[in-house]
Amino acid sequence: MASAPVLLQPHSAGRSLAVLLAACALLWTWWQIPNWYRLGAADEATLAYLVQLWQQKWLLALLTTAANAVVLYRATLPLALPSSPGSLLDTRASLAGAVFWLCTFFHLVSLLLLVLVGAGWLPLNPLWPS
């Protein structure tokens, strides 16, 4: 049985933007969970423990690295590397270029965030008890 040739479809800028937004939403949700608990909590000691447990430097680095890897392989590289030479002449190149630069900005900002947190110049949560 002969199989039909596989045609490479150019990667959609919308799909890349969806991956980028999903990664940002995941990181934002992870960061907000202690704040959501704070809304209904009266026990300050439990809240401080939750924040210190949840927002640790190694966990931030792990989640940011995972989000960067997903954005890189599912959004940035497919936009940077064309699926065919003809896709470089696509009329929607400006949209793909804008999403590519948004992804690049995400990578640079997350790297800067990790460097600042790792060096101790940016506290993870200024509300932590000292």
List the helices and strands and how they pair.
Blueprint: H1 13-40, H2 44-54, H3 57-80, H4 93-119
Helix pairs in contact: 1-2, 1-3, 1-4, 3-4
A few lines on this structure:
The protein is an all-alpha fold and 130 residues long. It has helices at residues 13-40, 44-54, 57-80, 93-119.
Architecture overview:
The protein has 130 residues and is mainly alpha-helical. The protein contains 4 helices and no strands. The chain has helices spanning 13-40, 44-54, 57-80, 93-119. The longest helix has 28 residues, at 13-40. The radius of gyration is 20 Å and the shape is elongated. The protein starts with 12 loop residues before the first helix and ends in an 11-residue tail after the last helix. The model has no long low-confidence stretch (mean pLDDT 80).
